[in-house]
Amino acid sequence: MTLYGVLAVAIAFLLDWFFMEPPTRAHPVVWFGKVIAVTDREWSAPRQIGLLIALGLPAIAAIGVGVLVQIAIVVHPLVAAVLAGIVLFTTTSMRMLLETATDVSELTETNIETARKEVRALAGRDASSLSPGEVRSAVAESLSENLADGLVASLFAFAICAPISLPLAAAAATWVKAVNTLDSMLGYRSKPVGWASARLDDAVMWIPARLSAVFIAVASLGTGFLSDARSWAHEPPSPNSGWPMATLAAALDTRFEKPGVYTLNPRAQLPTAADVRQGVSVVRRASLLTYVIAGVFAWF
Asked: Whole-prediction pTM value?
């Protein structure tokens, strides 16, 4: 079955490369988001309901996907591998992130108002008064953070489980993506129902965030960047996102800054458009490295 796991990783990579994202109407993550939206309201017991949501919704999604892949195995393992590859494709994303980051960074040199609007698709912050350098910082931060959230977490959950069971691997990738999606929609201090989702995501992302920092350092041909990053990684409120962000800031020798919240590599300058282009190249290499290593894990 290990060969089929590797095939699923390859299918996910090729689908991302050629299609970037499934159509919105057919995207399972969009469907899951609609389910989450129903729960996004005031509850009389928000902490208890929040715990049920955090534990229940990802489990339901994972079990459903695992059953579908198990049924596909009965038809033929190759059918199951193709289905698992499609599942993995829907739970990961990289090429769209790279292209969006490039486009927004270029806009900072030609149309800052449009760049401020477009950067909201990458970074959750008020961009209305950001300078061009601060917009580019938000873009570069999103590049590094989404390497962990959008690729490494689900891909490695799949790869670790693939030698055991293809249905389990597809279910694991789905579960991780569901947890991350819950956090992105509910995990805010202003939403008491999201407390459990936020804490669960912190736990799930602990290893992927640090793996992503390693991949960024290797892709930058400088593992010493990790020691530099350690000095700033705890500046952001998140226990995880600071690691890949700080490592990319060190690799590019630029300052990443979210005004009023954190500053990474404070002695450097805010990134130029050329710095962001270099960051895109680094994260692209890191993502390719991620797929290769995931394929090796899936094989063994």
From this structure: 0.95
